[in-house]
Design goal:
Length: 242
């Protein structure tokens, strides 16, 4: 049983920890900056590469209609941070290379159109400092020390499997129609000694880890999204290191 003075100290400590986590998350959000906006048509796949203030578009499909139009708002900061994207268009947009000192602070974003014919996309890319991996609510002791391995959101019909590897993220439809409005950001290589856990922030169904990353599977994680209702449901989650 806590004495009254010990209880006050405990409550104060928990309150300070929550306030610190909130402050760190708020600071990271305040330091977020938009890097660029890109608009274009995609037949199969294009990749957007931001090196400093130079944005280049590389057609990966054999019949891409053009390079699109872009507006670079800010050059890539030369310090640790992570890139996330938002997008419109019936396809997927993934950050497949996060900027780091090892790659010269270059980011690569993949835009894919799984549907027949040409589809229009609008991509917004944002950068935030490494502290952006600190999570806000729900608070618990040590929670702020966890790092986000993957942020993902998209519209899912029935069942979707998401695969997270050291070099990026991909997905395949298990049942139902292909997802759309997908946005994802990988924040770094998966550690081999620790597993992942899911913090689901949106969705009417379930999101589960069906394979933890280990040395035997090449540090590959698999995540299953199950949407139990007819039509598309909107889902978003963070996969965090334990």
């Amino acid at each position: 049983m806590f004495r009254r003075s010990e209880t006050r100290r405990y409550i104060t400590a928990v309150g300070c920890a929550a306030a610190l986590a909130l402050g760190m998350a708020a600071t990271a959000h305040a330091q977020q900056r938009q890097l660029f906006q890109w608009t274009g048509n995609v037949n199969q796949e294009v990749r957007l590469t931001l090196n400093g203030s130079r944005l280049s578009t590389t057609p990966m499909g054999p019949r891409e209609p053009g390079r699109g139009t872009s507006n670079v708002m800010s050059s890539m900061p030369q310090r640790d941070g992570e890139v996330r994207v938002t997008s419109t268009g019936r396809g997927t947009v993934d950050v497949i290379q996060q900027p780091s000192a090892r790659n010269g602070f270059i980011t690569v974003i993949r835009v894919r159109n799984p549907n027949a014919g040409v589809g229009g996309f609008r991509v917004n890319a944002f950068w935030q400092p490494a502290a952006g991996g600190v999570l806000g609510p729900p608070f618990r002791p040590g929670f702020g020390a966890n790092r986000v391995a993957l942020r993902w959101s998209g519209n899912v019909d029935d069942q979707l499997e998401i695969t997270l590897r050291r070099n990026g993220v991909s997905h395949r439809t298990i049942r139902g129609r292909p997802p759309f409005g997908v946005s994802s950001g990988v924040t770094g290589a998966l550690p081999g000694a620790r597993g992942l856990t899911i913090i689901q922030t949106q969705g009417r169904g379930s999101i589960d880890i069906i394979q933890q990353p280990t040395l035997r599977n090449g540090f590959t994680a698999r995540i299953r999204v199950r949407d139990p209702q007819p039509g598309f449901g909107r889902y978003s989650f963070n996969a965090i290191w334990r």
